[in-house]
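Problem: given the chain below (298 residues), write out its structure.
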Amino acid sequence: MKKYLCIYNPQAGGGKSINYLEEVKSLFTKYELDVDIVFTEYPRHSIEIIKNTDLSLYSGILVAGGDGSFFNVLNGYMAMDNRPDIPFGILPVGTGNSLARDVIDGDNPIEDFVKLIKNGKTKAFDIAEVKMKNETFYYANMMGFGFITDVNGTAPKLKIFKAHAYTLGVLYQTIKLKAFDLKMTIDGVVHNMENVFVIISNSKYTGGNYLIAPRAKIDDGKLDLIILNKLSRINLLKTFPKIFDGSHVDTEFVDYIQAKTIKLEANVPKILSPDGEVYGEFPAEVSCIPAAINIFSD
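Solution.
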């Protein structure tokens, strides 16, 4: 019988992911899945769990958490010297669960994903590689900087407002709005511009329901750049609601570019925000790694 490793982040979703534990266990039983559940105990603990586990004993790695949880598990896996070619499964019990929506978008996402694991069908999945001066990391969903990173830093402080925390973070950072000069080399072509934010996305959604990159595909061998150019606070507030349906990419303030490699440089330090985490800084080079992993899918 196949066995699976489930890395469960009890702090995902603002600590609410643990409320889904019994449901997850009962679904494993219902679909006759043999699963070892290991809980993370502190930030980035999943990286150590992956590195110190004999993955050859398992037929899949299941990540119970949100986008940040998947980010950490992915980086632990990619850091292994002799990593086995086993698929990943998502159990969306986090806050955003953006990545999960690109795989399946149903009314019962947790059970839907357990069904995918039981069925055993997989598909190739691109990821992004980010090389900095002294470190390399990977992400599966999206990475932002500028205004987006500022929002991701603010939103956790507003968790008392629950689902509205991210939107309130946007409003707060709008008051402090400031553009910055950026040099991007996109597939070898240099672009000098003044931006409010840039997102380099591998998948369509961010923040749970925001259709930030409507043309993105997780298996097309390309990354999607969404570039918000300098604009007024009023125009930012007018443009922001459009990201719910993806129509922001049709406004005059947004450039949308698909590319395989992007080199990032700026005159002032810029912090990166991959998969909702605040991690990494300029200068950096971002590349798409086609079909880097496999994921349970329909």
